[in-house]
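Take a careful look at the sequence and tokenised backbone pasted below. I need to know what the token row says about the fold.
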Amino acid sequence: MKEVLVIGAGYVGLITGVSLAEIGNSVTCLDVDSHKIETLKKGKTPIYEPGLDDYLTKNINEGRLNFTTDYKAAVEKSEIIYIAVGTPENEEGAANLEYLFNVVEELKKYINNEKIVVVKSTVPIGTNRKVQDELSQLPYNINVVSNPEFLREGTAFYDAFNGDRIVIGGYDENSISVIEDINKPFGIEIFKTTTESAEMIKYASNAFLATKISFVNEIANICELVGADIQDVSKGMGMDTRIGNKFLNAGIGYGGSCFPKDTKALSYLSKQLNFDPLIIESIIERNNRQKLSLVDKYNNFSEMKDEAIGLLGLSFKPNTDDLREAASLSIIEKLNEMGKEIYAYDPISGGIAQEKLGDKIKVLKSSDELLEKVSVVFIVTEWDEFKNLEFSKNKKYEIYDGRNILETDSIPVNSKYYRIGR
């Protein structure tokens, strides 16, 4: 059992801390947000992630997991320190490393003996070396290891125990071995490499997945023009083992905290190196356009231009309350510009969205209430409960399905139904 400190009790930090405690380590999660820490001490999570609450409470009760705002005490007792703070994009598209290096400055104050520092945050290539240079100023042997995360929101805790690989990058063999041993109980294949390669694996993986999404969305748009069905096309493509069948579902683009931020950061880094990232730039542009594809269909085909519009789904994907870079935000902004009255419903993120957007939308309490309220419906997020909507049989709807989740026989006979790539 190792004495582990995880700095940053946000999405990545919390999943990291709870999962490391679950496999037997003594874990302290540290955050500067005292309200968040007090909430976590009570066994309540500030984020929505299926299954996390139960494991959080279990590991607190079994004495392997605790929370603090006390840097000095937490750093001094730790053997291994994980940095898991956010690296949001700045106005230029680069990763903002302010929080990361604020942590490094705090570590320089309180590190009191030899330790291993693990950078879990998603950082531009070369960042781990900069962290190493800063901590090498201390009179102790401090080794920095890159250990990027590959968690999917909505299934993050499951992914921690069932991922495809664990990547460990560094130059000190002993430190790499220690982090390898910590991760062995997860039972996931471990890939060891250099620091820079580990950093690039994270960015390249997310950029490639974003590429598949943007590519299939572009093919979907062409399918509409030539009369092909994107679902058949995707299935036929995915049967080729060189391509694979994942991330080939056409829709209204990707969002969240990873793909948008990481593609922009990789593009920014490339330009700083005087390299023109043509493919990455086209991925970003296609995704930005795709988010508004339902609005385009509405403008082209709607016969109900004077009526209110209802959005089903607000989070960027199901099983999360995360609104970051969600297609719903782009749609709402555009519809507001057009002067439209907007109603919305989301099973989890409705309250968060209402607080964030104010009078730009009116959040309702159920999908049934929304279908009763409006005749123009945009399906924005593929929550399971939206796959079996109860449309009024005596009402005419215009349904714009941004995720291709409805069966045509569920659509009232007098209504219009528009999909992506079909």
In short: The longest strand covers residues 3-7. The radius of gyration is 23 Å. The chain has a mean pLDDT of 95.
